[in-house]
Amino acid sequence: MARTKIRILSLDGGGIRGIIPATIMVEIENRLQQRTNNPDARIADFVDLVAGTSTGGILTSIYLCPGANNRPKFAAKDALELYLNNGKDIFQMEFLSKVAKLYVVFNEMYPSKHIEKLLAEYFGDTELDDLLRPCLITAYDIRNRRAHFFNSVDARGGKKIYNYKLKDVCRATSAAPTYFEPAKISSEQGADYTLVDGGVFVNNPALAAYSEARTIRFSKEVAAHKPDFPSAKDMLIISVGTGTVKTPYHYDKIKNAGLIAWLPIVIDIMMSGNSETVHYHLQKMFNTLSEEDEQDYYRLEPALQDASSEMDDVSDENLKNLHEAGLHYVAKHDALIEEIVSKLIAYA
């Protein structure tokens, strides 16, 4: 048997920019179907652990959500269509917000009822422990002031305190400060948590996924031949971003900036800075491995092209531009995508 590895997919946060990784994953799933001559093949069939933050957490949940006969309920194109068809509903501003701009200084920009309705439609009563593969989805507990990791392995371990409705997990990981109010959710045991978007501390969850994989007995959770508690040399990590954001901030324009002016700048720097730092660490880690193994870490970070960097720009033009940015990346990096697909198949 060819050598197997733990195949890890990591998906960044980024609001509506989730269209970009969703587009890339459609291409990867299509190629997996073509290469295996199986039109029913899904992303979940070729990964052993998926990690996601915010919009990446929603994508994670869609890819791993079970349907009939314990097969994936959704195809990758369904995840893309969620954003293209429902983006305007998710980021739907109330009338008061539109007519009174001061409203958004003291309140979140978007009511949570729209995204909650959509998540309920997609996931119903599915729970975290139902997911088809191990996952790690991030959020931050603002009451207890600590990182909160939704972990399907722990949820399946019999402790109800670790199990949640999947729609609540997605609501929590995507509760971006200033955009949506915090999520107040309960575990199956009834423990209450007040959570916000995991992007406040780990917008790129790839390093957290590595750490999580180190603790998992994959021979039990995925397949008997999979290595348990793997180290980096036993991993294939594919980390997908939501578009490079390199907005420059010049001294003359921000030297006298106040709280309101600095807030979006801090959020932007915090998210992109975290993603860059995680990439730096993983790159250094894999560079310590053999020449063959060091090639098994991939960071896909598409350029935004003509798309807006705003996480909530759901104009028709921007939805189209985000989709085209994903398509442009796939076309430009055809050989890279093919290489990744080959390894996803080879490391089964």
From TrEMBL:
Listed GO biological process terms: lipid catabolic process
Motif DGA/G: where in chain: 197-199
Active site: 54, 197
Chain location of the short sequence motif GXGXXG per the record: 13-18
Motif range (GXSXG): 52-56
Keywords from the UniProt entry: Hydrolase, Lipid degradation, Lipid metabolism
Molecular-function annotations in GO: monoacylglycerol lipase activity; phospholipase activity
Matching PROSITE patterns: PNPLA
All residue ranges annotated as the PNPLA domain in the record: 9-210
Family in the record: Belongs to the patatin family.
Protein name from the UniProt record: Patatin
